[in-house]
């Protein structure tokens, strides 16, 4: 039984437990913070990280519920034994630890995300060219790191994967590392625990990371934990001095990366920063055409429809592709002779159009609020009740309500799926604070100013 198979089984169990609606959201969160370590002689070893989880799992009804779901998924009866996360390593043979380490640092690339499948246009050609060039000419002083920044859905991740796919094919001798910065943080934090499940020490992870020829970090804005920034900084310097090529993406210009220390940001500025913008009309159309390439017979779409999509949805290529998929999907249901503009407009009538450049959206409000407070999306969506975070949420709720008349439910969805009652009390709290707290009132005004300047 491989380690990853246990992960699959455990995910299935947790999904079923969640769907049963047996537990409250809070309890569920604790339960989910567990792993199935192994099943041996009908004993399932489940590891927990905190005593709260242990207490919850030890409750008779919880235990019974999980035992029965697990037995069903596993295919025969098991009993559950709880072990503390940090003790798992002791139960693990050396080679398994090694296997985990390798698995952890092994990178796979999405095969669809290649240079060939990437449509070039004015808005992205510089980024495209830099990524392609670095594949054949790594680590030259001028272009290291390459930093690609721009809004979500504009092809940053696609380009990093394209580098990975290209190198795998053309230069298989190169070691390539790719990670979302959030995942990298988990790897590092895990390594910092002296007895960690993967058996990695910080030194070991560091030495593995610096051996790479290419180091691709996606969404660097999420590298917010101080302790991991520290490690990242040394790994980064070592990689540069060894002549490795570093490519980083971010959702904002390096200078605006509030959560990162200046010494890191100034390192990023030493290379080449390239903005990737939203595709112009022609590029958007070419992207759509690329998507239907080879399937023209099966899905006949009028040119006018492509124009319509390219005009309406090109703010975010993910939405652009999504709108096309939606049309094709509906065409398979209704089977029209051809997808024409009437069909398209009818199907896409209810899509939220976030295209107009100056149109204020809830996302823009969120961005402005987090920027103003120097927070990340994770912070504002998370559960911490620190005053600064609470205030940031109140400002966000207040402005979404006042400026966009958003429903509490949809504001809640933007805020880590908070309940609408929580949002409505947050709004009331904001109204109070505006009357009684000058600082809060100023914050609201400042954020509003930021939004108007945009
Ligand atoms: P980001 O990382 O910037 O948020 P992604 O790289 O995930 O964006 O891109 C979102 C989707 O749009 C992906 O499916 C990607 O393949 C597609 N995409 C973005 N830009 C292009 C492009 N220029 N040509 C083809 N597909 C693109
Ligand atoms: Mg991305």
TrEMBL record:
It comes from the Bacteria. GO terms for molecular function: ATP binding; DNA replication origin binding; lipid binding. ATP binds at residues 153, 155-157. Residues 332-454 are annotated as: Domain IV, binds dsDNA. Keywords: ATP-binding, Cytoplasm, DNA replication, DNA-binding, Lipid-binding, Nucleotide-binding. InterPro entries: AAA+_ATPase (IPR003593), Chromosome_initiator_DnaA (IPR001957), Chromosome_initiator_DnaA-like (IPR020591), DnaA_C (IPR013159), DnaA_dom (IPR013317), DnaA_N_sf (IPR038454), P-loop_NTPase (IPR027417), Trp_repressor/repl_initiator (IPR010921). It is found in: Cytoplasm. Residues 361-430 form the Chromosomal replication initiator DnaA C-terminal domain. CDD domains: AAA, Bac_DnaA_C. GO terms for cellular component: cytoplasm; plasma membrane. Residues 142-280 form the AAA+ ATPase domain. One of its GO terms (biological process) is DNA replication initiation. It holds the Pfam family Bac_DnaA_C. Residues 1-96 are annotated as: Domain I, interacts with DnaA modulators. Plays an essential role in the initiation and regulation of chromosomal replication. ATP-DnaA binds to the origin of replication (oriC) to initiate formation of the DNA replication initiation complex once per cell cycle. Binds the DnaA box (a 9 base pair repeat at the origin) and separates the double-stranded (ds)DNA. Forms a right-handed helical filament on oriC DNA; dsDNA binds to the exterior of the filament while single-stranded (ss)DNA is stabiized in the filament's interior. PANTHER family: CHROMOSOMAL REPLICATION INITIATOR PROTEIN DNAA (PTHR30050). Belongs to the DnaA family. Domain I is involved in oligomerization and binding regulators, domain II is flexibile and of varying length in different bacteria, domain III forms the AAA+ region, while domain IV binds dsDNA. Oligomerizes as a right-handed, spiral filament on DNA at oriC. This is Chromosomal replication initiator protein DnaA.
């Amino acid at each position: 039984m491989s380690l990853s198979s246990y992960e699959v089984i455990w995910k299935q169990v947790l999904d079923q437990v969640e769907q049963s609606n047996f537990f409250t959201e809070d309890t569920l969160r604790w339960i989910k913070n567990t792993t199935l370590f192994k099943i041996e002689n009908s004993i399932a070893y489940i590891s927990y990280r905190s005593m709260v989880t242990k207490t919850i799992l030890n409750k008779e009804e919880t235990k019974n519920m999980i035992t029965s779901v697990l037995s069903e998924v596993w295919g025969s009866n098991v009993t559950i034994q709880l072990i503390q996360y940090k003790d798992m390593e002791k139960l693990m043979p050396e080679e398994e630890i090694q296997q985990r380490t390798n698995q952890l640092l092994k990178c796979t690339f999405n095969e669809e995300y290649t240079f060939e499948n990437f449509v070039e246009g004015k808005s992205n050609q510089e980024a495209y060219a830099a990524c392609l060039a670095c594949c054949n000419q790594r680590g030259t002083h001028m272009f290291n790191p390459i930093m690609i920044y721009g809004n979500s859905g504009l092809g940053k991740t696609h380009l990093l994967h394209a580098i990975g796919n290209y190198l795998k094919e053309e230069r298989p001798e190169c070691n390539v590392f790719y990670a979302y910065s959030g995942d990298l943080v988990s790897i590092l934090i895990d390594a910092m625990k002296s007895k960690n499940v993967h058996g990695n020490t910080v030194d070991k992870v560091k030495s593995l990371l610096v051996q790479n020829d290419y180091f691709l970090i996606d969404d660097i804005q999420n590298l917010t934990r101080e302790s991991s920034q520290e490690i990242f900084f040394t790994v980064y310097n070592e990689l540069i001095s060894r002549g490795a090529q570093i490519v980083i993406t971010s959702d904002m210009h390096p200078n605006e990366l509030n959560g990162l220390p200046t010494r890191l940001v100034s390192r990023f500025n030493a290379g080449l920063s390239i903005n990737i913008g939203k595709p112009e009309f022609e590029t958007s159309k070419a992207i759509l055409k690329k998507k239907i390439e080879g399937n023209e017979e099966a899905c006949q779409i009028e040119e006018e429809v492509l124009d319509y999509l390219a005009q309406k949805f090109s703010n975010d290529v993910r939405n652009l592709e999504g709108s096309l998929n939606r049309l094709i999907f509906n065409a398979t249901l209704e089977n029209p002779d051809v997808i024409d503009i009437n069909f398209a407009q009818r199907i896409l009538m209810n899509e939220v159009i976030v295209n107009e450049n100056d149109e204020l959206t809830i996302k823009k409000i969120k961005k402005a609020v987090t920027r103003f407070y120097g927070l990340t999306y994770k912070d504002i969506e998370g559960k911490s009740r620190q005053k600064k975070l609470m205030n940031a949420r109140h400002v966000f709720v207040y402005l979404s309500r006042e400026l966009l008349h958003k429903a509490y439910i949809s504001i809640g969805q933007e805020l880590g799926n908070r309940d609408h009652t929580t949002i409505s009390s947050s709004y009331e709290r904001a109204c109070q604070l505006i009357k009684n707290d000058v600082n809060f009132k100023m914050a609201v005004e400042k954020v509003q100013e930021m939004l108007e300047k945009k």
